[in-house]
Specification:
This protein is an all-alpha fold. The chain is built from five helices and no strands.
């Protein structure tokens, strides 16, 4: 049997994943990351990073919206399904920045620190998916 409820633990993890996703998006949108390792021909801001940040921001806001919606009404299968897909997508979009920062950290080890927020979002997302699909006997 699959547990279909938003318990307190799930709500806190969803809030954490949503807020962290929004914060990471603002780091990219405001240009707090460094692209000096890419050389002088690279502009200070990467357009693909801005697009990624908007997607991350949108999914963080949607995740918090689903969380707020879960407080206001009875939890149903559609809400849990939407939350699960949102969480999975939030984890999947972390792959591109994780790869970028991981691969560049071979030559610039300081870039490895930039992977930490993305790893946290993936970790929270995986944990949430495991809680949503926690099977009982």
């Amino acid at each position: 049997m699959v547990i279909l409820s938003f318990n307190r633990k799930i709500q806190l993890l969803m809030a954490g994943a949503g807020v962290l996703s929004i914060l990471v998006a603002f780091v990219y949108l405001l240009g707090f990351y460094s692209t000096e390792f890419m050389g002088p021909e690279q502009s200070p801001k990467i357009p693909q990073a801005d697009f990624w940040a908007f997607v991350s921001l949108a999914f963080g806001v949607c995740l918090l919206g689903l969380l707020a919606f879960s407080y206001s009404r009875q939890t149903d299968k559609k809400l849990i399904l939407a939350s699960t897909y949102g969480i999975i997508f939030l984890a999947l979009i972390q792959i591109a920045p994780l790869l970028m920062w991981s691969l560049t950290s071979v030559f610039y080890p300081a870039n490895l620190v930039s992977t930490i927020p993305h790893i946290l979002v993936v970790w929270l997302s995986v944990w949430l998916c495991r809680l949503f699909t926690n099977k009982t006997t």
